[in-house]
Amino acid sequence: MATAAVETTTRFSKPAVLDPLDVSRPEIYRDDTWHEPFRRLRAEAPVYRCEHSEFGPYWSVSTYKGIVEVESLPDLYSSEAGGITIADFLPETDVKMPMFIAMDRPKHTGQRRTVAPAFTPSEMARMTDDIRRRTSEVLDALPWNEEFDWVDTVSIELTTQMLAILFDFPWEDRRKLTFWSDWAGDIELVKNEELRLQRLQHMYECGAYFKNLWDQKIGKEPTPDLISMMIHSDAMAEMDHMEFIGNLILLIVGGNDTTRNSMSALAYGLDLFPDERAKLEADPGLIHNAVQEIVRWQTPLAHMRRTATADTELMGQQIREGDKLAMWYISANRDESVFGEDADRIVVDRPNARRNLAFGHGIHRCVGARLAELQIAVLLEEMARRRMRVNVVGEPTRVSACFVHGYRKLPVTIGKY
């Protein structure tokens, strides 16, 4: 398929004629109308060149097969050369904050290996009782048969508590983590110079706060939190300040957005498909599979970006060195060739739900995936123990962006089944 013709645009300006297959447009996520353009891309142009967008030219990789191929060749498709989002880094105005997800081997390997022990099966077992206790406290405090915002009251609170524990962060200040995560993960802010500078200021504040926590742990015995793990590692102990901030942002956004938006999706999605909710209510043994299915259906991070390091061919398309590729996980997780014609539905007993790409694939697969799955599973288990059903009473307010795919607000009531 040829790319749609539009007038040449400058960076971050609206194209005079919109390409209907430009899936970087924030409004299609805000309005939940992204399904059709991705359906067309998968069917007609699984590797598609969008010449003009607010983020400049890029290739859309929209099928499961195409994304697995790109993710499996990290030396050919670099995370470091252009970063991990469709927004470009501008040396003349942007401040570089390196993070290990946006690094190539071998540095990526060493830094990932440093934080990985926080997410091992033994650590998950150690943390389960505390996650269950905190989840129970949040659920037991909810008002029955009264309207409230599920996103803020449940999803944000539970994920922010978990982040505070992972970082050994002062409990009374834990909502700062949510605030920093929202600013760091909002890709749309780069289009507005004033907001971009505000974000930079908030990231500096985040770095200064964590630098104080870091300094307090220097020379102390190792503890099972991420800051201590960094201090006591060869790969991360000598990071400069910008790299320190970059890795903090990665861990905060990764730990916040994936879990938070999946927790919101379980409330919204199960209400949307009441037959599947009934199936899950009748058989709590389906919970662990349902977690995989909810994460697939939601896909909390819509895309990751790679940059070609050499001329190559991808599914019949000629990719040039330096080209930007957006891997649309949100589309791959609806790929009919993998998940069937009912891929747009939640099916709690879907046999291959675990094949989802919501956490990525290959060497950059989300290091905290197990923890996210555990928190979502415990939430569903504790809801089942209370026979708690969430009823959505109004349309959600969605994130207007092509990176974080999530919810700002979700009005609900709860009752018993």
UniProtKB/TrEMBL annotation:
Pfam families assigned to the protein according to its UniProt record, in alphabetical order: p450 (PF00067)
Family: Belongs to the cytochrome P450 family.
SUPFAM superfamilies on file: Cytochrome P450 (SSF48264)
InterPro entries: Cyt_P450, Cyt_P450_B, Cyt_P450_CS, Cyt_P450_sf
PROSITE patterns: CYTOCHROME_P450
UniProt xrefs under CDD domains: CYP142-like
Keywords carried by this UniProt record: Heme, Iron, Metal-binding, Monooxygenase, Oxidoreductase
UniProt keyword Oxidoreductase present: yes
Name the record gives this protein: Cytochrome P450
Source species of the chain: Sphingomonas gilva
Alphabetized Gene3D superfamilies for the sequence: Cytochrome P450
GO MF, one annotated term: oxidoreductase activity, acting on paired donors, with incorporation or reduction of molecular oxygen
